[in-house]
Model the fold of this input.
Amino acid sequence: MKRKLLDMAAQWGDVDAYNESALAELAEKMQETAGNLVETD
Done:
């Protein structure tokens, strides 16, 4: 999923820098959240 979001961000790169950065941030937040869900104590 992260790869798909980063691919979408790259497609926006030439059109709109705001959307590009928003999608990249979303990909990072999604990965963090997924990591937090997988962690066990």
About this structure: DSSP finds two helices and no strands in the chain.
